Amino acid sequence: MRKEVFITILLAFVACVPMFSQTTSSLPIWERKSAPAVILGRYVDREPGDKDKHPGGWGNKESLKGGGTPEITTDSVAGTFTITWDICYPLKNNFSGWSVMLFPGDTVRVDFNKKAFEEYQAYNKETPYDRITTPKLQELWKKAIHIEGATFELPLPIHMNGIDLGVTRDYSIAHAHDTFDEWREVCWNEFQDVVKQLDTLDLSTTKKEYHRMMIEQNYLNKLRKFMFVKKSWGTITDEDSLAMYEKQFTFKDPHAPELTYYRNTLGFLACLNNQFNEGRLYIQANGLEDSPLGRWFKELDEAKAVMAQAKANQLVDESELNALSPEFQTQIREVQALLKQESSGTEGKRRELPEGAPQEWLPKIVAEHKGHIVFIDFWATWCGPCRIGMKEMETVKEDLTARGVNFVYITDTSSDTNDWVKIVAQHAGDHYIVPKDKMQEMQIPDYDNAIPHYLIYDRKGKFVKAISGWPGKENMMLELQNVQ
Fold first, then answer.
1. Which one of 195, 318, 348, 418 has the minimum C-beta count within 10 Å?
2. Are 166 and 6 in contact (CB under 8 A)?
3. Tally: H helices and E strands in the chain
4. What DSSP state is assigned to residue 452?
5. What is the pLDDT of residues 391-427, one digit of tens each?
6. What's the pTM?
């Protein structure tokens, strides 16, 4: 880390955080169901020759079906785009510099003024410490984006402090030798200061309740940054000292009874701003699993376990499925039905995992191709470099197959099932989908939980080489040409 670089921590609600409509008297209704949420977008300042498709965006990782990508259709001539998420609980659709909170069944209309947004971004960059309090910034924002039908809000006029404003050298030095207990009190005092500011604002009870939850999540994020502050600006470099401090960290917190987000299922909306799952970890550490939000997370975990079985084409007991909440059942049954359909193409073959423990799967898969060179591609539907590699290998697949190379593709259940089925039909070879939590148990050679990852075996089934990251078609061909 270069010491002369000023490290800035961008808060989710510093850009634009969701809120409730002006007429709402209570927190928004979260109807528990499975239904698409649709964003209908339009560029309002298009000029002849503009070819913008849609502002690049993505969703949170909390998606039962997985994949993290919606269905997108565009009209580059009219300057319109439609983004459809198939969800069974709230999801935050993030764009560059703004976000929209979506509930199942929502239809959201977005008018986007690109030039005004560029002006907003430029002004925001010039006045980084005034981005919350500057009226001009809010005025520019209103000119840039108009949204109807979504929970949405401009930044609050609250002055954040401490780590929110960036880890300066002085701040890092001041807290370099804090114990974790001392650091937690620093974070708590900063949290209370922000809450006091919130209490002075002329907001409805609804809005204050929501924004307090968001501020609480920021408090949890600060707790996690305990070690980050110590390492910033190279303040502490001694490994023993860092290890000592790291052992002190815990989400166990005497202040937990004073927080509110876990007391309402809608606290999940605040958890979407967590970068590293702080909300759930905090619930577990403080014995709050029986709180409303804790119980919902337990339901979600149970549904995800069943979904992983369904996506991996493993038998799901009907009684286990029926025990889940209906919205989870809907999506799991959709996945089961999709995988039972006949392949729409003649290229790839959807294969069931071999019997036995996960560490037996790879050897058994390789053994099925005795006498052939085996090329195994670990990938995911949401992985851009993976898809590039697969596409480029298609141009040489016929020649490699003639040489006796067999192709095997393995993804995990983070892949979107609809996309997986389509891609399987386009790529000849054997395709497997593995429960995500079983990937590490497979004992994949030189695998560091990163994709794309490739394995090459010779004709006798002996492991030859592991390759991490897409090396390019020419380099991959050289690697395969050296295998007998």
1. 318
2. yes
3. 17, 14
4. S
5. 999 999 999 999 999 999 999 988 888 889 989 999 9
6. 0.81
